[in-house]
Structures are given as structure tokens and as C-alpha cells.
Write a structure and sequence with these properties.
Elements lengths: L14 H21 L7 E5 L5 H8 L3 E6 L2 H12 L3 H4 L2 E5 L5 H4 L5 E7 L8 H10 L1 E12 L6 H5 L3 H7 L4 E3 L5 E3 L3 H10 L4 E7 L15 H14 L11 E7 L2
Parallel strand pairs: 1-2, 1-4, 2-3, 4-5
Antiparallel strand pairs: 5-9, 6-7, 8-9
Pfam families: Methyltransf_11 (PF08241)
Keywords: Methyltransferase, S-adenosyl-L-methionine, Transferase
Organism: Streptomyces filamentosus
Amino acid sequence: MLPAVVHWPAGHGGLRDTIRQEIVARQVDEQITGRYPVGQRLRILDAGMGAGTQALRLARAGHTVTGLEADPELLKAARDSLATEPAGIRERVRLIEGDGRETGVHFLPGSFDVVLCHGVLMYADEPDALLAGLARMLAPGGLLSLVVRNADALAMRPGLAGDWTGALAGFDTDVYQDDDGVKVRADRLESLTATLAGIAAPLHAWYGVRVFTDGVPPEAGLPAAEELERLLAAEERAGRTDPYRRVAALLHLCGVRG
């Protein structure tokens, strides 16, 4: 039987975002299950948590979660979502307005078992310094979960859409335009592998995210439940299988603090 689809908060119902959130969630759970005893309540930091999608999901699973977000509107959305949760979940979540570069201001080194940094690195002016600061927040053996845009796949979306000019440009750049029209940076697996080794959180596992559905319009809704499960099963398998994962729109890297 295929795993049930996670029910994400309101505002996260589009197909492309649902695929990203669900596949990343399954991959995070796989890494947590493989590293920690069943039932252990972990200390988790979600740096750049956005609207709190993953943070709330992990709190529902019993973990203590701290969410750090610099955007006031996203932070408000996270707080509004948290307010609808039962008291037992609300008491496990702490939401802080702040930047991922400010972890040293808010927390002591080694304060967390798991640190998430999903969809943040592409906006960072000094990504290596950001990652080094996040790695310092991990206890020995702790897990760093990093989701980035895949620079080695920037030609895929325009190419599959028949935009040959865009496809040719994608081969020779690490800059792309996000859904809001902002030009940001993509990253490469080899470069991030070296960075993780240099900050004492070497790469333990990596996945691709959104292999087949990156070209779907952002506003596209969800298919029927059975079709969605098949789609998720295909995306999940592709995300852990070569050569498919290498052309995924996103990379999910998991480093372990030495």
C-alpha cells in the first residue's frame, strides 16, 4: 500500500508545491527513522521555515520544533496555522522572527538534533557562512537537511516546454528566475558536497525532488487521490534512483555532524 498523502495547511494545495512538500517530508522521515530510536522526541530547528509547513508536521509527530523566519507575512501565516492546532502541539512549537544567519544570536551551539534549511540557500549572499552557522547548531551526530535548486538541471524546464533559447541558456548558468520573478542562485551537488565536508557535516544521503512535475504550472490543482498517489510513488522512486534524480528540479542533501 502506498503511504498516505500528508494534509498540508491551507495555501499549500497546488500540485507542484504539494509534490515538493510531500516528497521532502518522506525523505526527512526516512533519515530521522534511520538515525534515531522510534518515539524519540527530537529538537528540531527549521531555519527559513516559510509558512511553517514542515515545522508543524514535525510537531504533530511529537518533536519539539523551533521555526526561524525573517519574512513577517510568512511568519504570520505560520502563527495563524499554529493557532489552529491542539494545545499539545502548540506547546511544542516556538516561532521566532529572524534570519538563518542569526542562529548564534538565538541559540547555543549543539542545541538541535535536526536542522532544516529548505529553499533558503538560493537567496543567501554568503551561503557557505550560512551553512557553517547552521551546522554549529547541531549536536554530534545531528542531521542537516538542505533543499536547493539543482543548477545541473536548469535547462530541463524550458527544454521540456519547447523554449530552446531558455534551455540553451540553462546549460551555462547557475542563476534562474523563481516564481515571483526574482533572480536567484542554483547549486550543484559536487560543490555542496565539498562545502558540507568543510563544515564538519559531510554528506550522508541525497535525493532529487520533482523530477517529473517541475514543468507543471504553479496554479495547477491536485488530481484525484488515486492518481496523486501514483504520481507521488513515481516521484519518490525517481528521487532516489539514478540517472533520474540528477535532473530533478531540486536537490535534497542530508549531512551528518561529526
